[in-house]
């Protein structure tokens, strides 16, 4: 996958990582912020090809439809980012990442895959913070609802979870640009945590009409790399 370090979506992604207000209750608390992408290569009529959910401690603050570019922001943090002048660029970034994941999905060829459903890729990038400091950053990738690969941004290593992910792992381990982007995004978000003050923020659950995903999203899933955290 030719995902160069200066790929067009990266500048916009770094803007996301430095939004004001990415801070939470107390420095001693443990928090996790994630972005979930669900991408379908050839979705059936009426289904979205790409959907994004941003959530803090499993509570959603933003929903995004890459196709219609419709955004639903939730809670105080959602209101904050929606009020920033950079938000239009940020939504473009989400779509660009969705496009990159769709390109990656087209290249995935799991061994012995006999499913007839449209191939679906789920990518989740998460950052964790505990006792006022960064404690972890990772990507989780699912193909057709099954966990296939993990990427540890700290150790820069891939881990095969599914026995049929051997070919995917071999190809992605050779992709230095992909690894560079995954690590760069997480590294860029860490300074923003220290620069932000600790303000109270309580994300709220999504409304009943929230965007539905093609596959049920678990708390930790797949991602060809994306997220921000300011705790």
Give a structural overview.
Keywords: Disulfide bond, Glycoprotein, Membrane, Signal, Transmembrane, Transmembrane helix. Its main location: membrane. InterPro entries: MHC_class-I_related, MHC_I-like_Ag-recog, MHC_I-like_Ag-recog_sf, MHC_I/II-like_Ag-recog. One of its GO terms (molecular function) is natural killer cell lectin-like receptor binding. With 231 residues, this protein is an alpha+beta fold. The protein has five helices and eight strands. It has a domain at 11-17 and 27-85 and 105-195: 2-Layer Sandwich (Murine Class I Major Histocompatibility Complex, H2-DB, Chain A, domain 1). Helices cover 29% and strands 27% of the residues. An eight-stranded antiparallel beta sheet has the order 4-3-2-1-5-6-7-8. A hairpin with a 2-residue loop joins strand 6 and strand 7. The radius of gyration is 17 Å and the shape is globular. The relative contact order is 0.25.
The H-and-E topology, N to C, reads as HEEEEHHEEEEHH
Question: What distance lies between the first and last C-alpha atoms, to the nearest angstrom?
Answer: 32 Å
CATH-level-2 architecture of the domain at 11-17 and 27-85 and 105-195: 2-Layer Sandwich
What integer value in Å does the Rg equal?
17 Å
Could you tell me the mean pLDDT?
Answer: 68
Largest sheet: 8 strands, antiparallel
CATH class of the domain at 11-17 and 27-85 and 105-195: Alpha Beta
Task: Assign the CATH superfamily of the domain at 11-17 and 27-85 and 105-195.
Answer: MHC class I-like antigen recognition-like
Number of beta strands: 8
User: How large a portion of the residues is in β-strands, by DSSP E?
Assistant: 25-35%
Q: Helix- and strand-based class?
A: alpha+beta
Which stretches of 5+ consecutive residues score pLDDT under 50?
1-28, 188-231
Percentage of residues assigned to helices: 25-40%
Number of helices: 5
């Amino acid at each position: 996958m030719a995902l160069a370090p200066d790929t067009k979506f990266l500048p916009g992604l770094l803007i996301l990582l430095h939004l004001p207000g990415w801070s939470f209750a107390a420095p001693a608390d443990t928090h996790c912020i994630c972005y979930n992408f669900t991408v379908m290569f050839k979705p059936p009529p009426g289904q979205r090809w790409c959907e994004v959910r941003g959530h803090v401690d499993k509570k959603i603050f933003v929903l995004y439809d890459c196709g219609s570019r419709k955004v639903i922001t939730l809670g105080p943090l959602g209101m904050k980012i929606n009020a920033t002048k950079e938000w239009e660029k940020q939504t473009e970034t989400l779509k660009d990442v969705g496009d990159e994941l769709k390109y990656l999905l087209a290249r995935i060829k799991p061994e012995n895959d006999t499913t007839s459903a449209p191939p679906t890729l789920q990518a989740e990038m998460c950052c964790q913070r505990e006792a006022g400091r960064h404690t972890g950053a990772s990507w989780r990738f699912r193909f057709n609802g099954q966990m296939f690969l993990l990427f540890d941004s700290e150790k820069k290593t891939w881990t095969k979870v599914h026995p049929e992910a051997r070919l995917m792992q071999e190809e992605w381990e050779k992709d230095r640009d992909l690894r560079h982007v995954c690590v760069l995004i997480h590294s860029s978000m860490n300074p923003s945590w220290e620069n932000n003050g600790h303000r109270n923020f309580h994300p709220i659950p999504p409304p009943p009409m929230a965007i539905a995903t093609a596959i049920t999203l678990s708390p930790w899933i797949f991602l060809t790399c994306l997220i921000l955290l300011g705790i």
